[in-house]
Amino acid sequence: MLLSSAKFKAEYTITMDDIVREGASVLRTAAEPVPIPLQAEDQEALQCMMQFLKNSQDPEVAVKYKLRSGVGLSANQIGLQKRMFVMYLRDEKGNMVEHAWVNPKVISHSVAMIYLPESEGCLSVDRPVHGFVPRYESVKVKGYNMTGKEVVMKFKGYQAIVVQHEIDHLDGIMFYDRINEENPFKLPQGVEIRSLYEQKSR
Predict the structure, then answer these.
(1) How far apart are CA 4 and CA 112, in angstroms?
(2) Contacts of 46 (CB under 8 A, 6+ apart)
(3) Of 141, 142, 149, nearest in space to 37 by CA
(4) Which of 49, 82, 109, 154 has the most neighbouring CB atoms within 10 Å?
């Protein structure tokens, strides 16, 4: 079911009841570009989404609202068919960082790939999914931030995985679409690929 951003005012608390689950058509439909400059309702929706991630990672708040922990959330996961997503996670230095992306586009990426050995998870998927999800080790993304300013940033490692997971959502792609159907633990051939947690050989 498609919703209007107007529902997600800044003071609105997103809970798991607002999260669209797999099988819904909005998760399989490419999201629409967001008009720039951002309208107030889109900015507030992004603020709501970011607060959900922060709440989900706060043990006390997560228990209160029965939230699953998340590091990324796309607009279509709350029923908004708009090209925007948020991230709240640690950077390479271990600091918590938050990113809000509007109309994001990967403009370049590494040849080398990585994957999470425990597979990926998704707030819209309530069942365990096993298998390797190959991702580019680094990506450069161009888009707009919450204030409507154009931004270009490069992400590596875990952050790059999250960015690609969320942009996939905006293109109607689920993470498990990238798992090899015949052998879930088979990795792409002819490309350098390693587990995220393996040290690069020097």
Answers:
(1) 39
(2) 84, 86, 100, 102, 146
(3) 149
(4) 49
pLDDT digits (tens, 9 = 90+) for 81-116: 999 999 999 988 889 999 999 999 999 999 999 999
130 is in an annotated binding site: no
Tracing tokens 């990113």 back to the chain, one arrives at 99
Strand order in the sheet with 113-115: 135-136, 113-115, 193-195
Domain residue ranges in the chain: 5-195
169 is in an annotated binding site: yes
What does the block give as tokens for 96? 């918590």
To which CATH superfamily is domain 5-195 assigned? Peptide deformylase (3.90.45.10)
**In 3D, which of 136, 152, 180, 2 has the Cα closest to residue 75?**
2
Residue pLDDT, tens place only, 152-172: 999 999 999 999 999 999 999
Tokens 């790939």 -> residue: 113
Which residues are part of the catalytic machinery? 166
DSSP states of 23-55: T-GGGGSPPBPPPSSPPHHHHHHHHHHHHHHHH
